[in-house]
Amino acid sequence: MATNLIPPFEPAIVEGIADVLGETQYGLTGSEIARTLAAVRIPDVSPTITKRHRLREALAARQAQDGAGNCVVAFIREAMSPVKYRNDPALRSRRQDDLNEVLIHTGLRVKDDGQVARLREGAATTLDEAARRAGKLRTELRRRGTHPDVLRYCTDELLQRDNFHAVHEAAKSIPDRLRVLTGRVDDGADLINATLTPSSGPVVAINAGRTPSDRSEQSGLANYAIGLLSLYRNPTSHETRLRRKVDDDELLEALTAISMVHRRLDDATVAQAS
Questions:
Q1: Buried b (16+ CB within 10 A) or exposed e, 121-146
Q2: What are the structural domain ranges in the chain?
Q3: How many other C-beta atoms are found inside a 10 Å radius of the C-beta of residue 67?
Q4: What pTM did the predictor assign?
Q5: What pLDDT, in 10s, does the model give residues 167-186?
């Protein structure tokens, strides 16, 4: 499609592309941005500012000069060339997913070969439609507001489309969070009972604990966390993925449930060790 004149992209789309490819942790490095701009003959107009702003300014300036969006597509194609990711295919998958979440609003997508192609369905017009049509679990999880601690534990598995182990790793995040909060070293139900149940103080309190309702809520969270471990961590430790299928719907439900525990822990009060 690079031989055809592409209408200029809206500023929000250019900014979204720059946010993905100039992202601090998973975006291109400063030197990679310089090399990629040079490879597609886009002047690096602001080389001293932050990566994402530098990239946005370069793409916007060249697009304004050309009166067309071909330069933006050329940059994406160069940045997403599969050969550049031969040692890190998961990183390419992450960037491809994130770019497609932006590009779907223009009716375009990045294909597995790095080319930018038109979607037969045309552009998405709402965030819900974009998330649904992108067809990517991480997109839907972000739309649902999945807790970042949950995604941190299972992003590699999600990128590898490994639902079975994604659930397993996500469930591990609950006891690990409690160990970080309390300094304890035990695990599973023993750890949860020792930190979250009303009889433990509790060490990690999600409310004031003054009323029966408070204590019931505290106990409910402890039982809920134990149930999630029993449902999603313990079975996958003993079953092979051939005998325990985890489809996309179950994965989304599981990670949403685990996120709820983390959100309650975000605001919890941790008792100081005596």
A1: eeebeeeeebbebbebbbbbbbeeeb
A2: 11-135, 148-270
A3: 10
A4: 0.60
A5: 999 999 999 999 999 999 99
